[in-house]
Design brief:
It contains five helices and five strands; from the N terminus they run E-H-E-H-E-H-E-H-E-H. It has helices at residues 20-29, 58-69, 86-93, 119-131, 160-177, and strands spanning 6-12, 36-40, 72-77, 106-111, 141-144. It has a five-stranded parallel sheet, sandwiched between helices. Helix 3 (86-93) links the parallel strand 3 and strand 4. The longest helix is centred in the last third of the chain and has 18 residues, at 160-177. It is globular. The chain binds flavin mononucleotide.
């Protein structure tokens, strides 16, 4: 029997080279079954500030195509000043009129060094994802508090409950796709 490979796209809300949110996406890549693969998008900061009517750049086209090509998307983001990082919101805004996220299965995750887990950014992100028409269920969101305490000496997620919760996000997203 031929099993089709499921293509997932990871979008990190952080541009930092040693981002904890990007580390979470890399960790999730290893939690997927053999028939699924996760590509992490690079170039979120290569899109101009969205404004209706301005021409789409190559960077915007590449972002939209990556979403269209994916069977599902995982967004993992930090919280800045109680909100979603502007770079991530800008990328999402570019898709509002053209609908790349419409009916797209999405898992939304926030991670923070604080005890709040970036819950306000997550709530805001979920509102935007609703506006974009994404396919989600009650289990499609996860907030991870105290993330820095959950990273081991080899820069890996070393906390079992967090790994379990990330695996659940993977499984739930795959179930939404199938
Ligand atoms: C300007 C600034 C504002 C921040 N605001 C918040 C915030 O409102 N809530 C929060 O949980 N963390 C806040 N943080 C801390 C970020 O969550 C932290 O830098 C996080 O590690 C960034 O994610 P990353 O490791 O993926 O880059 C802020 C950090 C900066 C630099």
């Amino acid at each position: 029997m031929i099993v089709k490979t499921i293509k997932l796209l990871g979008i990190s809300g952080s541009l930092r080279a040693d981002s904890t949110n990007t580390l979470i996406l890399k960790t999730m890549r290893n939690l997927l079954p053999a028939h699924a693969e996760l590509e992490i998008f690079e170039g979120l900061d290569e899109m101009p500030h969205f404004s209706p009517g301005i021409p789409e750049t190559e960077g915007v086209t590449r972002f939209k195509q990556a979403i269209l090509d994916a069977d599902g998307v995982i967004i993992c983001t930090p919280e800045y000043a109680f909100g979603v990082p502007g770079t991530l919101k800008n990328g999402l805004d570019w898709t509002v009129a053209t609908g790349e996220f419409n009916d797209k299965p999405v898992s939304a995750i926030s991670a923070s060094p604080l005890n709040s887990g970036g819950d306000k950014a997550l709530a805001s992100l979920l509102l935007t994802l609703t506006a974009l028409g994404t396919r989600r269920n009650e289990a499609s969101a996860l907030s991870i508090p105290n993330i820095k305490m959950k990273i081991g000496s080899e820069q890996q997620i070393a906390d079992e409950p967090t790994l379990h919760a990330l695996k659940q996000q993977c499984d739930n997203l795959l179930a939404l796709i199938l």
